[in-house]
TrEMBL record:
The lineage of its organism: Bacteria, Bacillati, Bacillota, Bacilli, Bacillales. This is Sulfite oxidase. It holds the Pfam family Mo-co_dimer. One of its GO terms (molecular function) is molybdenum ion binding. It comes from Neobacillus citreus. Residues 46-216 form the Oxidoreductase molybdopterin-binding domain.
């Protein structure tokens, strides 16, 4: 009778990287559904959670606009809405895999989740305010703030105007069909599908339209690719998510029994869609095409699988790589950079068969 008791039911939990601030990974190896449950959605924070309420909450749009506006929470939630299911991936996802190693939160494979977001398209709000012809960027400020390099700063990021006006960029108030949770951006979160998660500003309070390039600690210092170890030359900003994949099962260094097994996982990309996934069980000597499950959809990951009969008393080096519709392929070696962003080298594990 005891195994049927709900108390004994096995279930995954977030993997904690730090508590102050709260940084926790999604147990991505054990997810089956296309929508990551809110309680298992990864959390990436630079500062403590803000405490907010919808009773007196409003969003301001200011700067180079014809009509600066202040919109109450209840007003925004009655505006024309759009629902977007999208991967949100931290740009530091898989940082722990870089060689040579880099400093920063040592994320493994779980700084990524997929959810359904509902909100008002950003372009609709900007149209109401009336964007001036001289506008260069749109700046987004969250309610989270804290000490960075000795100064008290808020989390602020910007988008080029062209990106900000895309219809899938939304100011969301719902996540997975419920009000956004306080740990994931309540009451409002900017959602920028296809870009790494730093662009999807949480606890959004101010939108400022500017006629010049924005500069700030989370825009021109953090979230920048610095390709050289000892200088900041040839630096470029972190933007679109790279084509990537993960092997969910088997797990790395797992011991399997003789017989047929299914290698399975997820693949995703920031622009276009994943069109193919290949699997190698001989350390990249030969590659076989995996089966994609479902129709590839923009901004969403796709499940893949490959069945194989493993031989007894052997070790296997399994590799996986994904291709997208824009001609991007996971590289053998990730683009190394000082802060460890955008890791997307060929996914690989080793297993042993008894």
């Amino acid at each position: 009778m005891y195994p049927r008791d709900p108390f004994f039911k096995n279930k995954p939990y977030l993997t904690t990287r730090s508590l102050q601030p709260d940084n926790q990974e999604t147990p991505i190896h054990f997810l089956e559904n296309g929508e990551t449950p809110t309680g298992l959605t990864y959390r990436r924070n630079h500062f403590p959670f803000p405490t907010l309420s919808t009773k007196s909450y409003y969003l301001t749009i200011t700067g180079s606009v014809k009509t600066p506006i202040t919109i109450q929470y209840n007003q925004i939630t009655t505006m024309p809405s759009r629902t977007v299911t999208a991967v949100v991936e931290c740009s530091g996802n898989k940082r722990a895999h870089f060689r040579p190693k880099v400093f920063g939160e040592q994320w493994k494979d779980g700084a990524i989740s997929q959810g359904t977001w509902k909100g008002v398209p950003l372009f609709h709000l900007l149209q109401i305010a009336g964007v001036q012809d001289s506008v260069h960027e749109v700046v987004f400020e969250g309610n989270d703030s804290g000490i960075k390099k000795g100064q008290h700063v808020p989390f602020v990021r910007s988008l080029p105007l062209k990106k900000a006006m895309e219809h899938d960029v939304i100011v969301a108030w719902e996540h997975n069909h419920k009000q956004i949770s306080p740990k994931h951006g309540f009451p409002f979160r900017l959602i920028v599908p296809g870009w790494y998660g730093m662009a999807s500003v949480k606890w959004l309070k101010t939108i400022r339209v500017v006629d010049h390039p924005f500069s700030g600690p989370f825009q021109t210092d953090d979230y920048v690719y610095y390709p050289h170890k000892n200088n900041n030359e040839e630096a470029v900003p972190v933007t679109v998510s790279h084509v990537n994949s993960i092997i969910q099962q088997p797990l790395d260094r797992q011991i399997l029994q003789l017989g047929q097994h299914e290698i399975k996982g997820l693949a995703w990309t920031g622009e276009g869609v994943v069109i193919s996934v290949e699997v190698s069980v001989d350390d990249g000597e030969t590659w076989k095409t995996a089966t994609l499950h479902g129709q590839p959809r923009q901004f969403q990951w796709i499940k893949w699988s490959y069945s194989i009969v493993f031989e007894k008393n052997r070790e296997y080096s399994i590799k996986v790589r994904a291709y997208d519709s824009n001609g991007h392929l996971q590289p053998d070696t990730a683009f190394w950079n000082q802060k460890g962003y955008g890791y997307n080298a060929v996914s690989q594990i080793k297993i042993k068969v008894e």
